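Folded chain entry —
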Amino acid sequence: MTEEEMIAWVMENCICPQCPSWIPEAAEKGEGGYCAVGRSACIVEEVGCVCPECPVTLEKGLLWGYYCTRGSAEEMMAQDE
């Protein structure tokens, strides 16, 4: 799967809009799939996180959360090293 295909799959399966931290501006900008694409340009407050229940997290075995404010899974993995 190419990176472009992976991002498309993530966007189709993510549940970011159901998150307590989600804001209307993120929807207006077409944001989501932060575990793949990295931080949001507009979400700055961590109100709650649905990442642990997301099908993307479960399918890919991701270990983190708050990708919208902390960065992509790849970025988080690099921080853990």
